[in-house]
Design goal:
alpha/beta; Amidase signature (AS) enzymes; 16 helices; globular
């Protein structure tokens, strides 16, 4: 494998660097060569300085050789969505309004990465202000298709093996959907697990940080590094975090119980996605119990939309005055929708969100996970002018539940389709353990020809 180190997983790379079998400089150079050869047709990177990345790698190698302490991601390259503040490179939020903007301080999660010894390779492309207007990034599986949004570049960079790890964010479906379209793992842990301080805010109630990788263990490893209490983030909780990597590597004590909700909007699923999901449910057999959602549960997608629009309008109030014409039509429309929502409607929806939290807390007393679509199917064509439908993610995002997209299905033209698994709040390790069991069970049944 040493001839192409960009194919290493993050766990493999960290272990090889720490034991001196490879250097961080060799690893970063291999990733830079892959970026140089493939990114012209993908466009995953908003900012990349090869020499700065190599300088970080050389420093990581110097620290290791000196015998000093090394971190969990020592010398491992990571990409950051371009809404994450970095003191040493631009953070432009996917818009010309902030062209050349370089923050004075790192985001808290960037500090955590540096503390773990990671090499911050650069900034990956985001949709404008992490909202809905499509970015210029293309899907590595098919350059005529979208990689999804808003974490477009992060998903594409991992899928193209530019970096083994990347950070994104999700307010609707902006981690799970791109992971599905690009064929990577995408993981959004429990709301408040990872600090949002130093990230561009669209919604204080809904914004959450997530990660991308090509293995289940890698998303767990990165989340363990990024997680921690931050008193400046109102969503952060002052309690120990679940041990993600330990969960992903554990065997289930008993076969898990999994739920599936026949949501009314599942009629939007493409035939290949619907067929694939039904096959997964069939193969898991008695471990999956199907439910018809109550009207209240089915309506949570609208509760999410009301909160999202209202808070977007508030957060963009100043930009709407100073730079309205520079904003996309999608963002302009979102601001206008939010301005039409009354504070009473907004407060009512916040109350419903709290009720949903209690519902799911009780629900997961009996179930280990909820199986759901990650997206409507394979990635849409770029010519359609959309990053895809987020409706399959918004219920779980509203409730802040840990959510994982697993690259389990293949649709038309051999394009990837993810399967989503949702877990209980602050039981992310249990979710990842259940995901590992699902993957092993499906693989075993495929080997047996069932």
């Amino acid at each position: 494998m040493k001839h192409d180190l960009s194919l290493y997983s993050a766990a493999q790379a960290a272990e090889a660097v720490q034991h001196g079998r490879i250097t961080s400089e060799e690893l970063v150079q291999s990733c830079l060569e892959r970026i140089q050869s493939t990114d012209p047709s993908i466009g995953a990177w908003a900012h990349l300085e090869p020499e700065a990345a190599l300088a970080q790698a050389r420093e990581a190698d110097r620290i290791r050789k000196s015998g000093r302490a090394t971190g969990a991601l020592h010398g491992v390259p990571v990409g950051l969505k371009d809404i994450v503040d970095t003191r040493d490179m631009p953070t432009e939020y996917g818009t010309s309004v902030f062209k050349g903007h370089t923050p004075e301080l790192d985001a808290r999660l960037a500090e955590r990465l540096r503390e773990a010894g990671a090499v911050i390779m650069g900034k990956t492309v985001t949709t404008e202000f992490a909202y809905m207007h499509p970015s210029t990034t293309r899907n590595p599986a098919d350059p005529l298709r979208t990689p999804g949004g808003s974490s477009s570049g992060s998903a594409a960079a991992v899928a193209a093996r530019h970096v083994p790890l990347a950070v994104g964010s999700q307010t609707g479906g902006s981690v799970i959907r791109p992971a599905s379209f690009c064929g990577t793992y995408g993981f959004k842990p429990t709301r408040g697990t990872i600090s949002r301080t130093g990230l561009f805010r669209t919604s204080v109630s809904l914004d959450q940080v997530g990660v991308f990788a090509n293995t289940l263990e890698d998303v767990a490893l990165l989340t363990d590094v990024l997680g921690g209490y931050d008193q400046t983030d109102p969503a952060s909780f002052a309690r120990p975090r679940a041990a993600m990597l330990a969960g992903a590597q554990s065997d289930v004590p008993v076969e898990p119980d999994i739920a599936w909700f026949d949501m009314p909007f599942h009629d939007r699923l493409n035939p290949d996605a619907k067929e694939g999901l039904e096959a997964v449910i069939s193969e898991l057999g008695p471990r999956v119990e199907r439910f018809s959602p109550t009207p209240q549960l089915a309506d949570l997608v609208n509760v999410h939309k009301t909160i999202y629009d209202y808070e977007v309008a508030g957060n963009f109030a100043e930009l709407a005055v100073d730079s309205f014409d520079a904003l996309s039509s999608e963002l302009q429309d979102g601001i206008k929708r939010g301005q039409s929502i009354s504070s009473a409607q907004y407060e009512d929806c916040l109350g419903v969100m709290e009720s949903a939290n209690q519902f799911f807390a009780n629900f997961f007393n009996d179930f280990d996970g909820i199986l759901a679509p990650s997206a409507s199917g394979q990635a849409p064509m770029i010519s359609l002018g959309t990053t895809g439908d987020a409706i399959y993610c918004t219920t779980w995002t509203l409730a802040g539940l840990p959510s994982l997209s697993m690259p389990l299905l293949v649709g038309e033209n051999d394009l990837p389709i993810g399967v989503q698994l949702i877990g209980a709040l602050e039981e992310d390790d249990r979710l990842l353990r259940t995901a590992a069991w699902i993957q092993k069970s499906l693989a075993q049944q495929n080997q047996n020809g069932e």
